[in-house]
Amino acid sequence: xxxxxxxxxxxxxxxxxxxxxxxxxxxxxxxxxxxxxxxxxxxxxxxxxxxxxxxxxxxxxxxxxxxxxxxxxxxxxxxxxxxxxxxxxxxxxxxxxxxxxxxxxxxxxxxxxxxxxxxxxxxxxxxxxxxxxxxxxxxxxxxxxxxxxxxxxxxxxxxxxxxxxxxxxxxxxxxxxxxxxxxxxxxxxxxxxxxxxxxxxxxxxxxxxxxxxxxxxxxxxxxxxxxxxxxxxxxxxxxxxxxxxxxxxxxxxxxxxxxxxxxxxxxxxxxxxxxxxxxxxxxxxxxxxxxxxxxxxxxxxxxxxxxxxxxxxxxxxxxxxxxxxxxxxxxxxxxxxxxxxxxxxxxxxxxxxxxxxxxxxxxxxx
Length: 366
Prior knowledge:
Low-confidence stretches: 1-21
Structural class: alpha/beta
Mean pLDDT: 92
Helix content: 40-55%
Order of helices and strands: HEHEHEHHHEEHHHEHEHEHHEEH
Radius of gyration: 23 Å
Shape: globular
Number of helices: 14
Strand content: 15-25%
Distance between the termini: 80 Å
């Protein structure tokens, strides 16, 4: 009887250990080639290291702010880790919807002992943001459009020239970046952009410029849509993240080329939703520390052409893991790709996103 009791207790303890080890992590990201790069560089190695952990991929990052607001209001936060752009991380942090993190506790030091906050440098844009990559939003275009008579776009403002470059444009269904590009092509100097955008008439000026191509625009919400439209010939030119274009050009070998003119730089990384389940925090912290260490960030850059946010990761980036091509020429930070560029004004968009979004939606509905 005593032996049976002991065996039952041992079995119960064993089952408890398994249940503690076994856990789902819901990680929200952007889908497509980007999520695939995270899966290869972070998710698979982490699950191999942590037996019993299952990572659930959710591709809802484009709606992260609205969904986290709704979850918070309902008191039911179902996400564990969320991939967001810099401005959205600022909004979530300001609204108390993202946890503040201590770099010394959450992030690994560089291999030479450099503290994480030094290694990440300016990419640590607020107390809630855990940097991952430097990326840009730019344009790709078909190289085989007969109606272009051998010409190809060479500048951002060719997007607005539908006489020389007829065909459908694929643009993001959000004002951010579209507003800046429209104003640049309407004669506003780079240094004056956010002064002009801070006035209602500045936003209306941008929307008036976008009006000139509105009938030729197909709007996208997910970053994978433009590459697919370019591949299918549904659009002849379109904006998306540079890594998505790398995939359609170099991996899929589609007749598509990059237009780097006035690419918009941004940081992308993780936030931890406020209200996440307390018992999940140790595992979440372990994943974050693993996925943002020097080697893992360098590994992601072997699958997609986004620059790692850590200084110590950059020398470790070499050739594409599968294609064998050097990745440096495909990075937005390559000097040859930086002749004209913008850096996303995170503070301005964090302060003005809701108002400008409302004006943009009214314009869309017209």
